[in-house]
Amino acid sequence: MVNRPEMGRGFNFLPTHYVALVPQSGLVRSTRQAMVNYEHRFAEGLKTSAITIISGPSNSGDIEMELVVGVHGPVQCTYVVISDR
């Protein structure tokens, strides 16, 4: 997700279930390729205050090694790929 400078960042992490509509043309094989694509967009004038990569629920363990899912974001993620080619 790319946030404009005037946008907040927290709303990405608030929902329990995150749903993303992803254009097929935006799919890449690696985060490295995504960053190369953003470099081109920056050169074309893209302004942003943050880029957030949401790949799925986080896992974390406390001192007693109790596993907790979704600590740093949503517990569930759904990605809907939309054909735009």
State the total count of DSSP E strands: 6
Q: What is the average per-residue confidence, as pLDDT, rounded to a whole number?
A: 80
Looking at the structure, what is the overall shape?
globular
Ranges where pLDDT stays below 50 over 5 or more residues in a row are none
Percent in strands = 25-35%
The count of helical stretches stands at: 1
Give the distance, in angstroms, between the N- and C-terminal Cα atoms. 21 Å
Integer-rounded radius of gyration: 15 Å
Quaternary organisation of the protein chains: single chain
The biggest beta sheet reads:
2 strands, antiparallel
Order of helices and strands: EEHEEEE
Topology record:
Blueprint: E1 2-3, E2 17-23, H1 31-43, E3 50-51, E4 59-61, E5 67-69, E6 76-82
Parallel strand pairs: 2-6
Antiparallel strand pairs: 1-3, 4-5
Describe the protein in words:
The protein is of the alpha+beta class and 85 residues long. It has one helix and six strands.
Spell out the key features of this protein.
6 strands; 85 residues; alpha+beta; globular; 1 helix; two-stranded parallel ribbon; two-stranded antiparallel ribbon
Quick summary of this structure?
The chain is of the alpha+beta class.
